[in-house]
Every structure is written in C-alpha cells, then in structure tokens.
Amino acid sequence: MKLALVNPNTSAATTATMVRIAAETAGALAAVEGYTAAFGSALITGPEALDLAAEAVAALAPALGDAQAVIVAAFGDPGLDRLRAALDVPVIGIAEAGMAEAANGGRRFGVVTTTPDLRDRIAKTALRYGHHRFAGTWTTPGDPVTLMADPRALRASLAAAIERAVREAGVEAVVIGGGPLALAARALSATAPVPLVEPLPAAVRLALTRVAAGVRT
C-alpha cells in the first residue's frame, strides 16, 4: 500500500527525515511517499503559521488521490478535517495518534514541545479528541528555530521539560509534540522517566490499523 506523509511545513529536509522514520515503522506493509507544503513556514511556531499550514495541506489533496492512507505530520493536525472531506481514505494526524497512545489505559499525559505560542492550540486539540486526563504542555526555553538548529541542545532541553512534566503534574506518559522533533523523540525514548510517545510512528501504526480494518474517512 501507499502511505502519503504530508509535511505541513516547507522544509524538504524535514519531510525526508519524517519519511525515513515512517518507513522504518511501516516496514514491508507500506511504501511511504512524502509531500511538502508549497507555502507557509519552514517551522510552525505559532497559531498564524498553523492556520496557513492548514491551507497548504488542503491544497495538496489532489496529489494524494492514489494513497491508501494519509498522515498529516505536524502537531496540531492542520488541515486534517479538510483532507478527510476531500479523500475517501483514512487520514491520520500525528497529534491524534500520539495523544491516543499516550492516553492508553487512562493514563494522565502531557505534551513536551519547543513552541510555547502553540500551547493553547495543543490544549484545544486534546479537548477536541476527548482527552480529559491531558495535564498540559511543557515547552523548552528560548527561540525554537535556534534550538532546532542544535540537536544536542534540543535533546537536553526536551529531556529537562519531560522531567518538569513528571515532577510538576505526575504525568504517566509524554508525547513529544512535533513532526520536526521526530529524531529527538527517538533519541530520548530509551531514557525518559515515563513512557515517551513518538507521534509519527504512532500515526503510522494507526493508519495501518485503519486500512486493515477497512475504515474509510
């Protein structure tokens, strides 16, 4: 099957990284093809950029017609509803899938990310998906773009935010909130003090499950 991965930001390098991680998760079950937003931001850091990303994702709908499932690979799931309205295949958001895995078994969970300006949007997303044991969002300090350019500092800052979430709210699981954070999430998963959910692999698993079950949009 073909699994389309839609990157709502304009970075082709980020798309390539996410496609590689998604392909590792899918294995022989799916061929993953990446699609990059034609306009918007290279890194989505605020509500305005997220709204513009939704427009860019919706504009990609005509190119996705031969896919058996689609993943929207930005936290906040921009354009998800519009793709679902346009396509007759499962369309999965990484926030949708990541939060679902984190909440499994009724766990209290939090989100850790680099974008404080999206904290309110993340809370609304959790509420939209019915996650009443969502504990909140913990963010890294400083400019997200600068931090993303330094992988070692990024991992250290995310690890510190995970520790704060556990200490301050007693969370039982943490979602790393962001498609561009996929590599950092993978690196931190073995040493996190609570289960760490990588939302991109979670979205691949959910997409494969829905295709196998014959679920349509």
Describe the structure.
- This protein is α/β, with parallel strands linked by helices and 217 residues long.
- The protein has 9 helices and 8 strands.
- It has helices spanning 12-26, 47-59, 80-86, 94-102, 119-128, 144-148, 151-169, 182-188, 199-212; strands at 2-7, 31-36, 69-72, 91-93, 109-113, 134-139, 173-176, 196-197.
- The strands form 2 sheets. A 4-stranded parallel β-sheet has the order 2-1-3-4, with helices on both faces. A 4-stranded parallel β-sheet has the order 6-5-7-8, sandwiched between helices.
- Strand 7, helix 8 and strand 8 (196-197) form a beta-alpha-beta unit.
- Helix 1 crosses helix 9 (199-212) and helix 4 crosses helix 9 (199-212).
- The radius of gyration is 16 Å and the shape is globular.
Please indicate the percent range of residues in DSSP E strands (runs of 2 or more): 15-25%
For the secondary structure, the number of strands is 8
The value of Rg in angstroms is 16 Å
Q: How much helix is in the residues? A: 40-55%
Major sheet characteristics: 4 strands, parallel
Name the strands of the widest sheet in spatial order. 2-1-3-4
Q: Helix tally? A: 9
Low-confidence stretches: none
Instruction: Give the distance, in angstroms, between the N- and C-terminal Cα atoms.
Output: 17 Å
By helix and strand content, what is the structural category? alpha/beta
* H and E string: EHEHEHEHEHEHHEHEH
